[in-house]
Amino acid sequence: MPIYTPPLKDMQFVLHEVLKVQDSATPGYDELDTGFTSAILEEAGKIARDVLAPLNELGDREGCRLENGVVRTPKGFKEAFDTLRNGGWTGLACDPEYGGQGMPYVLSAAVAEMQTGANMALNIYPDLTHGAYSAIHTHGSDALKQKFLPKMVSCEWTGTMNLTEPHCGTDLGLLRTKAEPQADGSYKISGQKIFISAGEHDMADNIIHLVLAKIPGGPEGVKGISLFIVPKFLVREDGALGARNGVSCGNLEEKMGIHGNATCVMNFDDAEGYLVGEAHKGLRAMFTMMNQARVGVGQQGLSQAYAAYINAAEYARDRLQGRAVTGVQNPDGPADPLIVHPDIRRALMDQKAFIEAGRAFLIWGASMIDAHTRSGDEAANGLVSLLTPVMKGFLTDKGFESTVQAQQIFGGHGYIEEQGMSQFVRDARITMIYEGANGVQALDLVGRKLASDGGKHAMAFFDLVKGFIKENEADDGLNADFLIPLKAASKDLQAASMYFMQTGMKDPNAALAGSTDFLHLFGHVCLGLMWAQMAKTATESLAAGASDARFYENKLVTGRYYMQRLLPETGLRLARITSGAAPVMALAAEDF
Amino acid sequence: MPIYTPPLKDMQFVLHEVLKVQDSATPGYDELDTGFTSAILEEAGKIARDVLAPLNELGDREGCRLENGVVRTPKGFKEAFDTLRNGGWTGLACDPEYGGQGMPYVLSAAVAEMQTGANMALNIYPDLTHGAYSAIHTHGSDALKQKFLPKMVSCEWTGTMNLTEPHCGTDLGLLRTKAEPQADGSYKISGQKIFISAGEHDMADNIIHLVLAKIPGGPEGVKGISLFIVPKFLVREDGALGARNGVSCGNLEEKMGIHGNATCVMNFDDAEGYLVGEAHKGLRAMFTMMNQARVGVGQQGLSQAYAAYINAAEYARDRLQGRAVTGVQNPDGPADPLIVHPDIRRALMDQKAFIEAGRAFLIWGASMIDAHTRSGDEAANGLVSLLTPVMKGFLTDKGFESTVQAQQIFGGHGYIEEQGMSQFVRDARITMIYEGANGVQALDLVGRKLASDGGKHAMAFFDLVKGFIKENEADDGLNADFLIPLKAASKDLQAASMYFMQTGMKDPNAALAGSTDFLHLFGHVCLGLMWAQMAKTATESLAAGASDARFYENKLVTGRYYMQRLLPETGLRLARITSGAAPVMALAAEDF
To answer: What's the gap in Å between the CA of B453 and the closest CA on chain A?
Structure first.
């Protein structure tokens, strides 16, 4: 069975040494001293390792079952969920007014990496509840907030998001679910939704569905979509549960992975619902929490890469197979461990160099979300909005690839389900698809975010990179190993952006044909920047005679690997982008 | 349920227009006129589409079950296998002396792509039988051949390969299975083998296991390994089946994919076995058929990519979602088909451009195997041996990636098992692992094949590329679109080879750290060469006023896509390779 080792030291390094959250002006960050964060992360890490991880493979094997309309979750899931609920973990970053702990998102994001890394399927239940909480918290009336939020913060009630219908996923303008206004101000919701994660299950007293639907007579397309709360059980004035509402699970999907998560077909049949926010503004309400939700999915991808990686590293140290080409390393054994072989190390270094920078990228992103939500920093909001599709798309594409590399190290054993490596691959696969498929992320990046506010946020990113290089280029080692490659990669990114600006207006297909390449190019520059920043911190710590020199030296080694072997991909991505639309668009549809 | 459309026209194009097999001097190729090959391929395609493909998803869902030592294969598998047996398909390329059809491998390889593309799990049974047939045919005594081959050619009896043991896969020197010589010249085999495909099942009267084992007192390590035939049922002098032998299936593995294939733990307990070839030369005997087996696995990877691709293209044409950025394309519908979106086309073009060149590469490889086996062409043998790890490693890495891209086009529907796209991904995944994991292929390429015979075969490959460019560069269109990019890629490959030659002797880790990159660099040059050759043929056909101009124009479009957007990866691979061993080897094992 796979192990889970919480990456505590690495998280502390990013939080306190690289980002220096304790010195930030963001309200609430003054609490984040190393003693406090390490107490929280250690405790969360223990739960991840000892409670959540041991259930991961069992959840995959057992899956969820639909029996007479009731969904049975895998054995032990409810008890593990209770551990999260009882410890107050589900409300870590929630508003204290509704029973939350009020912690910064940056801390809860670090906690979430461990929880979802240890058991992604289980954590979808509280994750979605938090998403629904955020939508209601931002857009709901006081009455709705008082009625629903306290139980959602504690996860006594869980939440869902109902967007997709059989004939429409990305293109929500096509949706058909109807909401008929009632005399008492409520609505009757009817329609079918599919792919509803945690839509029905046996781990909570009530389930609060957020549902996108159309009020008859409203505008056509996406402008006529409204957002509703539809509880599984109606909630009485005194807060007690009332009658069962007209919502039920019609089927469970058999999926490639996240078997412990109940993915439901949900049928709404004159179900009582309550409008959240304004009528016809539902899509906006749903999307205001999108940054955080997409960062969360990026984190799922990264967390699976990390979980798979630590197991692959362990296997590579243990499994004896073949001899090192430069001479026997384990003379007392029948063979050397796999890790002596350069190609095995290459695969492990690919994973490690990606994961550590990806983690820093996500924590940085979370800190910008805090800067916006806690102190109204619009520049931070603009930048993190720009980077959100990169975090979601790049970290899940590469996260999946990384789990495949980890599985490969196990040879034939990696293909056997019992070993657990297949599950990391299968679970990670969904992260490239849901919360906006990665092609949609690329479209969002190139078609919307890049030029938003006159390209201001993209310029801010380039300035940030340039500023960091300028500030630090006097350090020869840092300059040669990190800043020069970063500068080259950043130039590729600027050249690609320039190409889009020049061709995008007259030939939008030319920009969109390169959108996925651009997303990856951008992702590499971000991780290159993370490595440059981490290398600077490591260099300074070494110069200051840090007691744990090896930790910092290893950071430099791993960072150099990224700069030398992974970052040069930016040139290839640029070449693809500037080949334009013609090669992509030339064939007739029927000739594929 | 996924469809399967046999790629008949594409195969005919490669066989008759690009490779011109009908004009080849290889014995037996004179039979291969277009009428004959199209009759065979059409019939094989029908079986693939109508008999094998409809069972694919069912085989995945139902899997194999072990009941009291008997393995039950999925419903319908035996009847479909009967169709293959009764039609003589299993012996297509086998020796007529033992009941085979004696066809060239190049034709049976084309047939195999369709059969394995339509149902990979089912085709493993005849594929492995053919592998075992080849080993016995090449190395067995006449008596063994007479006794076992006729029933293996007809697949009344199936075959297996027993190499892996729990503690050793790649490193066969560690194996422990013992073969004790008996007075009658037979051996008693005892030990445990794992991951034995088709090790036990209910579709054949007998199963002929080929088993690697050590004769006590023989040399240590791989030099003391011998190859044995161990039948499930002993075969009497008159050919009738006798007593059950001491071999049984101890367990079935639960795997990520190929569920219709029985992957068995095999226990040998004083089982009667017969030496194949010389004692202690078993590994050589097993590996002489390795070229063909590895080409076959490369073909599995490609075949899954193709099967996934045709379904993705169909879905992209059918599914209505969003509107084209350049203006509505389907004004009468609620939305435009997915295929109008540039990023969807980009993903489809990635797949198509890879698949068509990969198919040509494999058929070319098969023709070289024929040139060697049918007319003793040692140059062809040297070249195909060099290219075998590329065909296996590159085509399965990219084949898997291609299935993931196809699945991605389905969005959330791609993650649902019912849709069938997940199965292509899960089935294709094994091709990167078995028959020598792709890291081992890369090691074989860089550590052995590249420098074998003084680098003669690598030089022959470079000369082939150079010669083709020189012969054709007078054609300006071909030169600009195909030959110039091919020349650049080939230079990257030569630079990488040179780097290995210069550093490999003093720092073997520097060569091996770049081995996977080299395999991919080599693969791209091969597919670039295939596209250049196909483009030449297409250009000539268009100039000659071919009636099906659109087919040839599409070839040029698809080829240009490869040259512009995929082939430039060679530069990135070269950069990684020349970064050398240091970044890969610098960390201590315990610091991963």
So the answer is: 21
Tokens of A322: 């073949």
Helix, strand, coil percentages in chain B from 3-state DSSP, rounded to 5 = 65, 15, 25
Whether B587 shows a pLDDT value over 90: the answer reads yes
Token pair for residue B269? 């307990």
User: What is the value of pTM for the model shown?
Assistant: 0.97
Q: Which of residues 569-588 of A touch B (CB under 8 A)?
A: 569, 571-572, 575-576, 579, 581, 583-587
Residue A284 has what pLDDT? 85
Residues of chain B with Cβ-Cβ distance to A428 below 8 Å are: none
List helix spans (H) across B213-341: 282-288, 290-318
* Interface check B447 vs A, CB under 8 A: yes
CA–CA distance, B112 with B105 (Å, rounded to integer) = 10
Residues A277, A491: Cα–Cα separation, whole Å: 43
Q: Do A572 and B572 touch (CB under 8 A)?
A: yes
Q: Is A79 among the catalytic positions?
A: no
ipTM: 0.97
CATH number for domain A286-446, candidates 3.30.420.40, 1.20.140.10, 1.20.1260.10, 3.50.50.60 = 1.20.140.10
* CA contacts within 13 A on the Cβ side of B350: 25
**Contact between residue A210 and residue A276 where contact means Cβ atoms under 8 Å apart:** yes
**What is the interface size between A and B, counted as CB pairs within 8 Å?**
253
Is the CB of residue B231 less than 8 Å from the CB of residue A394? no
CA–CA separation, A48 and A2 (whole Å)? 13
Q: At what angle do helices A515-543 and A484-504 cross, to 10 degrees?
A: 160
User: Could you tell me which residues come within 8 angstroms of residue B110 by beta carbon, excluding any fewer than 6 positions away?
Assistant: B11, B15, B37, B41, B44, B363, B366
* Interface contact A558-B432, CB threshold 8 A: no
- B39-84, pLDDT tens digit by residue? 999 999 999 999 999 999 999 999 999 999 899 999 999 999 999 9
DSSP assignment of B103-130 equals --HHHHHHHHHHHHHH-HHHHHHHHHHH
A408–B433: do the CB atoms touch at under 8 Å?
A: yes
Q: Torsions phi, psi of A488, nearest 5?
A: -60, -45
Beta carbons of A341 and B317 less than 8 Å apart: no
Is B89 strand, coil or helix? helix
Cβ within 8 Å of A, B 151-190: 164, 167-171, 173-174
Looking at B435, B471, B569, B590, which residue is catalytic?
B435
User: Which of A170, A422, A516 lies closest to B346 in CB terms?
Assistant: A516
Q: Considering CB atoms only, which of B430, B508, B568 is closest to A415? A: B430
Opening angle at CA A515, ends A509 and A517, nearest 5: 130
From chain A residues 241-300, the ones with a CB under 8 A of any chain B CB are: 253-257
At CA A38, angle to CA A36 and CA A40, rounded to 5? 70
Per-chain mean pLDDT for chain A: 96
CB contact under 8 A, A256 and B167: no
Q: What is the separation of C-alpha A187 from the centre of its chain, rounded to a whole number of angstroms?
A: 33
The answer to whether B88 and B118 have CB atoms below 8 angstroms apart is no
Give B438's contacts in chain A (Cβ within 8 Å): 408
Question: Which residues of A, range 313-342, sit inside 8 Å of B by Cβ?
Answer: 313, 316-317, 320-322, 325-326, 334-335, 337, 339-342
Eight-state DSSP code of residue A33: -
pLDDT tens-digit profile of B476-501?
999 999 999 999 999 999 999 999 99
Query: What is the H or E stretch that residue B228 is in?
Result: strand B225-231
Exposure of A355 by Cβ count < 10 A (0-12 exposed, 13-18 middle, 19+ buried)? buried
CB-nearest to A326 from B432, B447, B508 is B508
